[in-house]
Design a protein that fits this description.
Blueprint (H helix, E strand, L loop, with lengths): L2 H17 L4 E7 L17 H8 L2 E7 L4 H10 L26 H5 L5 E7 L17 E5 L22 E3 L2 E2 L6 H15 L6 E6 L12 H6 L6 H26 L6 E7 L39 H4 L4 E3 L7 E8 L3 H8 L16 H6 L8 E6 L4 E6 L2 E6 L12 E4 L15 H15 L7
Parallel strand pairs: 1-7, 1-8, 2-10, 3-4, 3-7
Antiparallel strand pairs: 2-9, 4-5, 5-6, 8-9, 11-12, 12-13, 13-14
């Protein structure tokens, strides 16, 4: 063999190693999926693909988000609590959420040559001029606005300015099919088309399992025929359909030899809907649903509340190459994913990022709890629901939306002994209440500072 050929063979493994140095990231976000709506929390729910990933990954038992969709998406992509950008980010909105200059997760990953694609629900600005490609994504597909008709793909009927929302790279398109299948198929095509040496950030903010419920394939109903209540059965069918779609997408990472070095994160954007649903908000079919179609049991409360059922959601992280399976008692929040994923991707931002999130990579890999208490701050809809967890203790309140914290009537819970928030200790432990209110006031004082 000639010397040049020998040198080429010696160099080849190093080159391949460099190509695979940075992990691919598949970030899965379900919409309105409750604590009791997944198989690993409820054996009546059929989610075999997700259950397998949980078993071979790290189940995140104390994973928090914001009480609604837009706020959680801001937290995930910026590493900051949404209220830092102003009160408009604390509730679902069609207006532009964050400034164009914000250093988002995809922008930062692109410094390591990540290819970044979004497939699903954006809802951080529902017009093309505020779309995801303006904030670091190379490719985007789905709805610019929030939830939409599963088959019709239009947004809420009472929001005509944003009704047309289905797009590909900010160009409106008309396509036939189930929104869940369309987004999954588009993501699969995108993954297959990317060069093997380039790391991927595939962000999948699914519309499922937000209303409307409009499943047609009897396969999903057959899998859930053990549910007597027809609305719960229909919802469970949608969950099973979501599980299958995620399974198909994960298989593509295996087919393209990416799976072993892919970080897979799964979460819901908020808890499930606690009450019923009146229907008729989206293009037909959009049926009315009785209370109980979704479930956060045994947690208290649901979507749009600061009780645990609104902000503590089913979640896991899976990385075959680096993370040992297990159940993690680590308290995490959606804001933690940006600094954690940047650490794993070896991104060192300059100037250094100042974010609310904590970098959790070392804790997750070593399976250890942090030495200092984690503080989780919640404010929804301009202060109409607020809360703060510090260590094992939590305060929360309904509020009128005023800036003065004294307007709130506080409840105090010890989540270690009372995760279902059944015993309000505010009248029995005034010192602890005072301590947490002071921390809440400090956090609230930082709101609206990011411009």
């Amino acid at each position: 063999m000639r010397p040049a050929a020998i040198c080429l063979l010696l160099l080849l493994p190093a080159q391949l190693g460099a190509q695979n140095r940075y992990p691919d990231i598949l970030f899965l976000v379900a919409d309105d999926l409750g604590w009791n709506d997944v198989g690993w929390h409820n054996d009546k729910i059929r989610t075999p693909r997700l259950d397998t990933l949980v078993k071979s990954g790290i189940e995140l038992d104390w994973h928090y988000v914001q009480p609604q969709c837009t706020p959680t998406r801001v937290a995930l992509l910026t590493g900051n609590y949404p209220s830092r950008f102003g009160p408009h980010c604390t509730v679902a909105s069609n207006e532009q959420a964050i400034p164009f200059h914000t250093r988002t997760l995809p922008k930062l990953l692109k410094t390591r040559n990540y290819r970044c694609g979004l497939f699903g629900k954006w809802h951080l600005g529902s017009l093309p001029k505020w779309g995801p490609n303006k904030f670091g994504f190379d490719y985007s597909y789905g709805s610019l606005a929030g939830a939409c008709g599963i088959w019709d793909h239009r947004y809420r009927l009472n929001r005509p300015a944003y009704s047309t929302t289905w797009h590909r790279n900010h160009e409106f398109v008309t396509e036939e099919g189930h929104s869940l299948e369309l987004c999954t198929d588009e993501a699969i095509r995108w993954v297959k088309a990317q060069p093997s040496g380039d790391p991927l950030f595939c962000y999948m903010p699914y519309h499922a399992v937000h209303t409307p419920l409009a499943e047609k394939d009897r396969t999903w109903f057959e899998r859930n025929k053990h549910f007597e209540d027809p609305d719960r059965r229909h919802f469970a069918a949608y969950v099973s359909h979501l599980d299958d779609a995620i399974g198909r997408l994960v298989e593509v990472f295996k087919e393209t030899k990416r799976y072993d070095n892919t970080i897979i994160v799964f979460t819901s954007d908020n808890g499930g809907v606690e009450g019923g649903y009146n229907g008729g908000a989206y293009p037909k079919p959009d049926p009315k649903l009785k209370p109980g179609f979704s479930s956060n049991k045994p947690l208290r409360g649901g979507k749009s509340t600061s009780y645990e059922g609104g902000i503590r959601v089913p979640a896991f992280v899976h990385w075959k190459k680096r993370l040992d399976p297990g159940k993690c008692e680590l308290t995490m929040h959606a804001v933690d994913w940006l600094p954690t994923l940047l650490e794993w991707a070896e991104v060192r931002p300059k100037p250094e990022l100042v974010v609310d999130g904590r970098q959790m990579a070392g804790n997750l890999q070593a399976g250890r709890l942090p030495s200092r208490p984690r503080t989780i701050y919640t404010t929804w809809n301009r202060g109409r629901q607020v809360g703060l967890r510090h260590g094992d203790w939590k305060i929360r309140s309904d509020g009128p939306g005023k800036s003065n914290f004294k307007a709130f009537t506080w409840e105090l819970y010890n989540l270690k002994g009372d995760p279902q928030e059944t015993s309000n200790l505010a009248g029995q432990n005034l010192e602890k209440l005072k301590e947490l209110v002071a921390i809440f006031e400090s956090e609230r004082g930082r709101d609206g500072k990011l411009k």
